[in-house]
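Render this sequence as a predicted structure.
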Amino acid sequence: MLPLPGPAGAAPSAPGQLIFQENCVRCHGADGRLGRNGAHDLTKSNLNAFGRTYLVTNGLGKMPAFSKKLTPAQIEQVVAYSLTLK
């Protein structure tokens, strides 16, 4: 499978970026700001890595849990990538 292009057509560079594109873009958008289906704007989130890891792992409200779909390492990678969205 070829990597999906990131913002401005760039290939994914961070390990979690491809995971983000495959699982999160639908609601959060490529830049984290989409807000579809009640998703929060990740660029304005006050959650640190611990809080984001909890949410990605367990879900909350409309945010689904990814503990059965992603490994702990993949969750750590996607959380690290989400923290770069500004």
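Summary. Confidence is low (pLDDT under 50) at residues 1-10. Residues 49 and 79 are 6 Å apart (CA to CA).
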